[in-house]
Amino acid sequence: MSAALTDSQLEALRDEIKQQGDEIRQLKESKADQALIKEKVAAMLAKKKLLGELGIEKPGKFVLKCPKGTRDYGAKAMAVRESVLKIMTDTFKKHGAETIETPVFELRDVLLGKYGEEGGKLVYDLQDQGGELLSMRYDLTVPFARYLAMNKVAAMKRYHIARVYRRDQPVMTRGRYREFYQCDFDIAGKYDSMIPEAECLKILDEVLSTLNLGQYVIKLNHRLMLDGMFAVIGADDSQFKSVCASVDKLDKEPWEKVEEELIKERGLSPDAAERLGSFVRFRELNPDLDNVAVLDQMMQIPELAANAKFKQGVEEIKLLLTYCESFGVSNAVRVEPSLARGLDYYTGAIYEAVIPNGLEGVKDEEGQPVGVGSVAGGGRYDGLVGMFAPKASVPCCGLSFGIERLFAIIEAKNAAEQTAVRTSTTQVLVASAQKNLLAHRMRIVGDLWSWGVHAEMTYKANPKLLNQLQYAEERLIPFVLIVGEQELKEGVVKLRTTETREEKNVKLDELKSTLAQMLAL
Amino acid sequence: MSAALTDSQLEALRDEIKQQGDEIRQLKESKADQALIKEKVAAMLAKKKLLGELGIEKPGKFVLKCPKGTRDYGAKAMAVRESVLKIMTDTFKKHGAETIETPVFELRDVLLGKYGEEGGKLVYDLQDQGGELLSMRYDLTVPFARYLAMNKVAAMKRYHIARVYRRDQPVMTRGRYREFYQCDFDIAGKYDSMIPEAECLKILDEVLSTLNLGQYVIKLNHRLMLDGMFAVIGADDSQFKSVCASVDKLDKEPWEKVEEELIKERGLSPDAAERLGSFVRFRELNPDLDNVAVLDQMMQIPELAANAKFKQGVEEIKLLLTYCESFGVSNAVRVEPSLARGLDYYTGAIYEAVIPNGLEGVKDEEGQPVGVGSVAGGGRYDGLVGMFAPKASVPCCGLSFGIERLFAIIEAKNAAEQTAVRTSTTQVLVASAQKNLLAHRMRIVGDLWSWGVHAEMTYKANPKLLNQLQYAEERLIPFVLIVGEQELKEGVVKLRTTETREEKNVKLDELKSTLAQMLAL
User: Where does L-histidine bind (chains A, B) (predicted)?
Assistant: First the structure.
């Protein structure tokens, strides 16, 4: 299955052929000039021939690869993934959360109309093989809402870690895949204002400080404050999403560029855009103000103060800030009127955690700092469950960690710090020094397993000692028990410490207690 | 979304309509009598009307359900599932295994032709949305082989726990789903004969004894022994699979019935069938023989002894039995010449764990014992990786636990023993006795989290004490810390043990050490 082209080149070639095919169909439909169509067809066939010459598309042959935008997680990637997810599940469990699992696909109607026009296009559909029409889940939030509505659950604190599917253009070098993990925590139920939100921020703070990825900021805003600001400048509801999308770029682009986009593409008047700038940049323009002062001074602007939505949003955020203090959430929380987040379904507080400067000392291949940007986000969405069960009102708020991004950051950090990643938990390798000791090795490794020791032996009947010691060193197995003829006669076994290469004899009848002490069993 | 019919009734109705539609199409194609076709169409329309009258199929309405053959795993099911999987992952890790994850779908060509004609029909395909043709994984073994071939991995000991997809007829009451978990452990690599198999049997034995589901038997046979027996009776290769399928029924059906099937459906002569019976029932007909004696006495049959494949199979199984002894695998292992297992790709030893009598004292709703039957199986498959990389030879053997079945058994056991299943790990509920103590509760629960205590508080500003205590009792939270005005003045907090309802005061500045001792933090 050798080929002169790399997998990604082959993929690009196929994409080109597909595009050309689409173009030709359009030309035919629009009854374009026949000569032009002929030319395009010839170009496409030439590309197809290229594929054929490479022996790739011949019947019975295929390129051995993962589907576009997906990847295998090898043992090393899984070890990193498990260490990150353990921090999250431990934290969720510490906060009393339960977990659920839902099917990887849903009835197509369940997902329909939940992700806007853009999102809807990215949903993977299953083929109609006679039966129901199904689609792959696009996130974990809509299935959670469907679960609550279907099972008539009125209150639940749950986490859910699983993969979701989006037919997006993958950028795998930057950790953007078509199949990727999400890690969600949500609190569903009718409770008093801002208490569940406070616990969400607390969890964000705990996870990020435990992950130890350097300085982070938790930005905080409120949907009603955004609604109020937009109302004051005269933007209507239909503009909400597009204006949000522009405002949300403020953490990456200068105001001038955002302002231009607001006027030229979003249809705001220059006055309205300028006004909006003075609101959403309030924090940026008043860098000395603290969280409460930002809110208080924005309330000094008469039109904002007069807007009922804005006022309610401010009051809720102020309440949330007092709860953060009681919970001892670090001073990472920062009120940020420009935080917009794309999703339509948020109804209350919204938040997003960012690592503003990236990891200290960790650069990618192009010398850019690694880890800059958003690593988690969430907010309140009170209307989603009602879309499935109109009579049920189950208010929810939650948060989602950008797991793939966190994996990428930690993998880069490990690489920069040359941290060796262990892919197994083996504590002892049982080796032999001479031939014909297989039965003895087996008996000893069987004892070790029965004592709870994580142990391995090589699957050769008569392995060379050097190969066994090398295996222990490569796999970072801390200890090797060496079975030898002479030692067996003396009723001992040799215990070797891999790192120091020190060896000492241990009596076979003291092996259990020695290992128990050494490995803290 | 109320309806007079249950979801399963609706599903049945839809299935009937679909079947009627298929029938009508066939009648039309075969140019059947027009009156008959009209009658059938009328019957189908009546059923369709029934659906319509129920308001189910009106545009914009849909039944809130999971896709056919799938289910949600609620918190309780997940708690059981996690406890079972933990036993397995702990055992796999104790044996030094790594884990990997592969995409939930594969290129269609990867799965094509790997599951025989029957299996191929059950594969879920994704819709062609422009791009590659994809199908959902059908098991974890073929993706593992694809992974090894694609990444040129020559040796690996890995486990993989994930869901797979089969468009089978679901029987959800008996734990047969279209989306279900598999739990696989495999050893890939060129090693000495039967050593990896011995570790697979050791793992089977460890997991089943830890699960504590009563007496189990690990049946053991060899593909080459089956090949030899079939050759001696004159069955040819094309009959292998169908004859295996019949022989495999011997643990559920009497020989007479299997014999009839072999003659009438599989095309064996009465003589050949009788001869085969004397081979595959050798253990059953000689109940006093032990494992080695069964093999030795079968080798006394001249035609079997003269068959090179049979002889090699016997020698390998005898070697495996000596390794089992060295590993201290319990005497659960039982040579069973009738064990056939369906899968074509096995090339060596095959094994299957069964719980022959079901769980003691655990009956299902119909009074039948729960848990009878196969709970795990596996074997050697040396040719699979080569199907992806013809030049690579990566011999493999492994095992797969029937997780859904084990879940069902343990859920039935819990129900029979009235075992309460905890769905969270909360150790302490922080409650308040009066109003206006929210900030105090928050501060204390924040302290608890920082000490590593699994703690919760209700999300009400002023909850009633009784409701909070009830929450702790319902959720089996062992301790409640009650914050009260008077107690705060005295610098204490009340610690209540949920089970005994005992209460005692603890000084706030001794809270950390008290909890640390009590909860063994």
Answer: 139-141, 166, 182, 186, 341, 345-346
- Which amino acid would we find at residue B134? L
Hey, are the CB atoms on B73 and A187 less than 8 Å from each other? Answer: no
Q: Are residues A28 and A124 in the same domain?
A: no
Q: What is the pLDDT of residues A112-148, one digit of tens each?
A: 888 877 788 899 999 998 889 999 999 999 999 999 9
- Selecting from A151, A206, A442 the residue whose C-beta is nearest the C-beta of B449 gives A206
CA angle in degrees (0–180, nearest 5) for B125-B131-B137: 30
How many independent structural domains does chain A possess?
4
Query: Where are the alpha helices (H) located in B334-461, listed in sequence order?
Result: 403-416, 438-450
The answer to whether the CB atoms of B461 and A101 lie below 8 A apart is: no
Q: A46-50, A64-68, A457-461: lowest mean pLDDT where?
A: A46-50
Query: Is residue B157 included in any domain, yes or no?
Result: yes
**Residues of chain A with C-beta less than 8 angstroms from the C-beta of B403:** none
* Same domain? A46 vs A89: no
Is A327–B106 a contact, with Cβ atoms under 8 angstroms apart? Answer: no
Contact status of A108 with chain B (Cβ, < 8 Å): no
Strand partners, B482: B431, B494
Interface residue B150 vs chain A (CB under 8 A): yes
> Is B186 among the annotated ligand-binding positions?
yes
Largest CA distance in chain A: 94
Q: Do A96 and B424 touch (CB under 8 A)?
A: yes
> Does residue B59 belong to any structural domain of this protein?
no
Tell me if chain A has a CB within 8 Å of the CB of B6: no
**Domain containing residue A512: CATH number:** 3.40.50.800
Residue recorded with tokens 């090795």 = A441
Do B250 and B109 reside in the same domain of the chain? yes
Task: Return the residue matching tokens 């708690």.
Answer: B79
A438 touches chain B (CB under 8 A): yes
pLDDT at B337: 96
ipTM: 0.83
Instruction: Name A79's Cβ contacts closer than 8 Å, sequence gap at least 6.
Output: A421, A422, A423, B98
Indicate if B406 and B434 belong to the same structural domain.
no
Establish whether B323 is an annotated binding residue: no
Do B371 and B503 lie in a common domain?
no
Closest CA to B241 of B351, B145, B113, B115: B115
Nearest of B158, B84, B96, B186 to residue B400 by alpha carbon: B186
**CATH of residue A174:** 3.30.930.10
A63-101: buried (b, 16+ CB within 10 Å) or exposed (e) per residue? bbbbbbbbbbbbbbbbbbbeebbebbbbbbbbbbbbbbb
Compute CA A514 distance to the chain's CA centroid, rounded to the nearest angstrom: 43
CA atoms A211, A214, A215, A216: torsion sign? negative
A18 and A31 share a domain? yes
- Rounded to whole angstroms, the Cα distance separating B246 from B265 reads 9
Give me chain A's average pLDDT, please.
Answer: 89
Q: What is the pLDDT of residue A56?
A: 42
Interface mutation vs chain B, best among A459, A460, A475, A521, most B CBs within 10 Å: A459
| Ranges of residues in chain B whose predicted pLDDT is under 70 | 1-13, 46-62, 342-343, 358-372
Domain contains A59:
no
Question: Count of alpha carbons within 13 Å of B262, Cβ hemisphere only?
Answer: 29
In the prediction, which pLDDT does A242 show?
86
Q: Which residue of A has its CA nearest to B70?
A: A103
Boundaries of domain holding A294: 217-355
The last residue of one of the domains, among B389, B416, B443, is: B416
Answer with the one of B368, B383, B416 that is the final residue of a domain: B416
B509 annotated to bind ligand: no
Residue B120 φ then ψ, to 5° = -55, -35
Per-residue confidence (pLDDT) for residue A5, from 0 to 100 = 52
Residue A61 falls within a domain, yes or no? no
pLDDT tens-digit profile of A311-358? 999 999 999 999 999 999 978 999 999 998 866 789 999 999 998 876
Is the domain of B480 the same as that of B402? no
